Amino acid sequence: MSQEIRRELISKNLGIIPINHGKVYTFQIALPDSEKQEISLERSQAIESSLLQHQSNLASLILRRTESYSDDTEYELVYGAEWLQVAQKLDIEMLWAWVFDMTDEQALIAKSEFSQLFGSLIYAPDRNEQHSVESPDLEQMIDRKLQATADSIKQVLASSLDKFKEAFDDKLKTLHYGLDHLSSRFSEIPELSAQINELREQIEFLGLRSIGSRSKSLPSFNGTQINLLTANDREIMDLLQQVGAQKPQIESALKAIAHWKQPGKTLTWANLERSAKAKAGAEHKVPGFAQGTLNYLKQIGEI
Which residue of 48, 69, 102, 283 has the smallest Cβ count within 10 Å? Predict the structure, then answer.
């Protein structure tokens, strides 16, 4: 990851812009009294071992530029007190650091951010572990924060998508019920009836496209498929309801099956496919029976 990308990520996530990342002379860093800590013997030994092994810190300190101290002191520590205290004790000449220009308020916020992410600054490695560290920085911290942000966004989007799906399904149901009402009123007018059936197929196609884009959230059928040649209407209706078929789809499915069970006809998937694709008024067209309903039948039945 380039320095420019890292600077941009830090700026977006901490609300401050780093002006430099590199090694800083230890004597140039002021440690405010409020940041001085009592370090346990075990912790001190672990940090000391790491500093002596690498002659520097394995992860960067957080500093801000200052003019509040002596002429030699250019930076004030914001985070990483334990490492700075031990490094000064050992006379480590230089330490890795991110340098910022920030106000007192921004410094407190930055310190809080790092405290939440790490608890105590950076892990102190076991003295027996071997490390190859060339340029320690905040990349891992940025990755963790970005991942947490991404996870939060995904949760919000998933919740919004679920609400949209529910609203979409409700609209489809309303449209189907409205078409049922129109069909019953104008069933004796062939032209209007044909137009209503074409509209129903278009609506079903829209529902099918929606189903295709969210198939993982649909009710799944884990039961035993029934034989459509021998099953009765009640059995077919029950299973179609389980997989989410609407009332008009169930009715058209039963009509299509009955059509191909008539004497001289054969109920096969190929013939049901013919009915699903047939235009209004065609010989084997069953009003309201389209590809979406056929897919539901294939989910719950066999021939």
Answer: 283
d(C-alpha 19, C-alpha 101), whole Å: 7
Residues 163 and 287 in one domain: yes
137: CB partners within 8 A, 6+ apart = 6, 21, 59, 60, 96, 98
Among the listed residues 2, 131, 106, 118, the one whose alpha carbon sits nearest the alpha carbon of residue 61: 118
Domain span including residue 24: 3-137
How far, in Å, CA of 108 to CA of 102, rounded?
10
Q: What is the pLDDT of residues 252-286, one digit of tens each?
A: 899 999 999 999 999 999 999 988 888 777 888 88
Contact 123, 141 (CB under 8 A): no
200 and 289 together in one domain: yes
pLDDT, position 100: 87
